[in-house]
Hints:
The complex is a heterodimer of chains A (about 190) and B (about 800).
Chain A: H1 4-12, H2 16-21, E1 26-32, E2 35-41, H3 47-54, E3 73-76, E4 79-82, E5 95-97, H4 110-117, H5 127-141, H6 147-153, H7 165-185
Parallel strand pairs in A: 1-5
Antiparallel strand pairs in A: 1-2, 3-4, 3-5
Helix pairs in contact in A: 4-7, 5-7
Chain B: H1 2-5, H2 16-20, E1 36-42, E2 48-54, H3 56-60, E3 64-69, H4 70-75, E4 107-108, E5 114-120, H5 123-131, E6 134-139, E7 165-172, H6 174-182, E8 186-194, E9 206-212, E10 217-222, H7 227-237, E11 246-249, H8 265-277, E12 281-284, H9 287-293, E13 300-308, E14 314-326, E15 353-362, H10 376-393, H11 398-405, E16 412-413, E17 419-420, H12 425-435, H13 441-450, E18 454-463, H14 471-476, E19 485-491, E20 497-501, H15 510-522, E21 529-532, H16 550-577, E22 584-587, E23 590-593, E24 596-601, H17 602-611, E25 625-630, E26 639-648, E27 655-665, H18 672-692, E28 723-726, H19 744-761, H20 772-780
Parallel strand pairs in B: 1-12, 10-11, 14-15, 20-21, 27-28
Antiparallel strand pairs in B: 1-5, 2-4, 2-6, 3-5, 7-15, 8-13, 9-10, 9-12, 13-14, 16-17, 18-26, 19-20, 19-25, 22-23, 23-24, 26-27
Helix pairs in contact in B: 10-19, 15-16, 16-17, 18-19
Amino acid sequence: xxxxxxxxxxxxxxxxxxxxxxxxxxxxxxxxxxxxxxxxxxxxxxxxxxxxxxxxxxxxxxxxxxxxxxxxxxxxxxxxxxxxxxxxxxxxxxxxxxxxxxxxxxxxxxxxxxxxxxxxxxxxxxxxxxxxxxxxxxxxxxxxxxxxxxxxxxxxxxxxxxxxxxxxxxxxxxxxxxxxxxxxxx
Amino acid sequence: xxxxxxxxxxxxxxxxxxxxxxxxxxxxxxxxxxxxxxxxxxxxxxxxxxxxxxxxxxxxxxxxxxxxxxxxxxxxxxxxxxxxxxxxxxxxxxxxxxxxxxxxxxxxxxxxxxxxxxxxxxxxxxxxxxxxxxxxxxxxxxxxxxxxxxxxxxxxxxxxxxxxxxxxxxxxxxxxxxxxxxxxxxxxxxxxxxxxxxxxxxxxxxxxxxxxxxxxxxxxxxxxxxxxxxxxxxxxxxxxxxxxxxxxxxxxxxxxxxxxxxxxxxxxxxxxxxxxxxxxxxxxxxxxxxxxxxxxxxxxxxxxxxxxxxxxxxxxxxxxxxxxxxxxxxxxxxxxxxxxxxxxxxxxxxxxxxxxxxxxxxxxxxxxxxxxxxxxxxxxxxxxxxxxxxxxxxxxxxxxxxxxxxxxxxxxxxxxxxxxxxxxxxxxxxxxxxxxxxxxxxxxxxxxxxxxxxxxxxxxxxxxxxxxxxxxxxxxxxxxxxxxxxxxxxxxxxxxxxxxxxxxxxxxxxxxxxxxxxxxxxxxxxxxxxxxxxxxxxxxxxxxxxxxxxxxxxxxxxxxxxxxxxxxxxxxxxxxxxxxxxxxxxxxxxxxxxxxxxxxxxxxxxxxxxxxxxxxxxxxxxxxxxxxxxxxxxxxxxxxxxxxxxxxxxxxxxxxxxxxxxxxxxxxxxxxxxxxxxxxxxxxxxxxxxxxxxxxxxxxxxxxxxxxxxxxxxxxxxxxxxxxxxxxxxxxxxxxxxxxxxxxxxxxxxxxxxxxxxxxxxxxxxxxxxxxxxxxxxxxxxxxxxxxx
Lengths: 186, 789
């Protein structure tokens, strides 16, 4: 996986072994929303706990603890991942993006803007995970997404408020915007 | 300005900026200095006596601060949880309710019941210590099935309630109904189960209790739909602190659907324990705890009958329902299957006589209380299944049978309490038939048949009672509270406005819709209005959000507070313009008078109100801040027609919803975008009930659907694109003409889906949830006799 090479390097580095045994903690270092972070943590700590409790990035939510609801989706090395079932320690060396890091230079990501424009959220609790999953879905699809593909693609994210109707509309609109942005960039 | 942000405009929501950027502030996002963590030791048994609790190993575990049990909470004389609506049985006796302690007193009554709490330095340490609490149980037989829980020989949950019967209630005129049935040309009889549901807001419940020894006061951060009601109950009944020494804050709340109305054991214990350990105590449910210990919804077993004459006119309706209330009575549990259910059994129809009996029953399951719609989905399912089956049995088109029996003049007093104030049921039906292309159904059925598929169409012409509720009326029916709402409009010297409301937004978008009202009426920019809610130290009192009441009741309170602001502002303007106040006119943000050609803007008058240079204290009180309490004069009656069209593969049992048409009458709309979103979400929950969701306890009382792997939540691929349209008749009982929209979809949808499936299958023997297995089995039987024959 993305972090294996980096983790192997860390393990081989002097002092790494003692960090894993000394005091029951492990050392992790990763890049979160573009900023390098490092900490000594309980080896049991989940990535979502590291983000929420250690870094105080509370935009990533926990809805189920069992990888079913998707409220905890973040990007690990650019791909959507459920942070409630990843150990923070296994993300050593990884590049993480959370909902707080999606907007650039104060400008909302097209997916964020589309969720607002299309009323793709109500209580907002599933929204960060939904947006992060949707961004990954659009990126993977190469812009070819119809309603059916969006509904299938969001299989891993639960929303109890919207009935998904407006989420599908938002993702479709964002996919078009992201596509035109990509073309403009090319 | 008003055209783009005023009443009726699809304004994009103010609250979205923080939610889409990860800046929402939910209870679990809050951490207090020195905070410790609570983990509950829960009963693994449905029904058992607690023989002993040995906490010695847990107390010695790393990081453990304290372990408390029922004995500790009893010693501190912490009161039990309450049920706030007193129901009387038909013999006049009050309901028979057992105690509901926050930590079990010698006996547990459902899997997940609260036995002890462990407080530790970290969550992981609290979990580890909780594993070391050794509880010895003497297990007792479980009682799970509502239909048989009252039978002789069943285990008894509470000594106070013989035969597990909390009440045997009734409503209506039995003699008139019996006479109508005796004279009927046709009688339809059906047995229905309204399946038990688990609300599953995606945000799990959470609470932080914090004791301030310097002020001897408590603060509770909690996932609540009604923080003031929580404060009142926690102080006046549970006795944790005097009301003025208890602050309850419900910040952003991630969905409620009813499940966050109630005052639960966990927040009670966190508050109490924070005083004992001298530290803030935080608890956040994991999803398993949500499944086990959030109040569940529905769970009725009903036999229902409809009598019609030779012309197909409905003569009478009769229903007998057994309602599962769970192991204890939750906050409003008693009212849901009684006064929120039977008064809706007239549906949209002119039914001269109705009689309904309801037994409220204890079982060894999680408490059952209000869940989106609360009683009204159960009533609509009874009425709309009866009407559909009757139409089929007497050979009439289901749409035309409904049309023939619609109520057409208003006000209309039903035989079951309610007086419907306004509606146009035929208008909704006609519009829905057109949008659904009902004329084309035959051709579409033939086309499906050519592919080996079965197509069916189902109607649901629902009604609900919202805008809950006139205080005197609900008081006369046993409610322990009034159901008015409060508002305060605070104008700042610069003319911006804070609106404080007793309503609570947990997805409904009040920060936007309430601002639309204020902006339009005061003629100030939408951006100049901030809505404040969810904190008992900021808002004086309020009854909270449920029962689609925040528009009809909450916004009406704001409306009248604004009226008072305008009256006061006109007085200020009179002094500034040097004219008599009664000549001052206020329109679109401008104060003017026929007595002068000078005008003032709203911010100019606001500033004058505060600097108070143009009038003396003897003439006028400075400042510009007004409040209002609004008590509605009637319920509101949203209604509509939903049409569901399904296509079933008889080889797999898979049911695909091909078309969904909703035409709803919600009265006046503040923000149609938000209203449509409420319909979408409601329909999704109703479709979930009909096709996917069902809480299942096995005969030992274990909840076998206690995770998202086992309890089927609707996902995006389970739902269709929804066609939602409106057909409004203004509500006459509030100044804005609002009826409410929050529950409609969940109320309408189950009957529409099941009516469509039974139409496709050609027989009535299908129960909810109509899973592929259930539908496949049903599809194997050729159209046989209808259940009623």
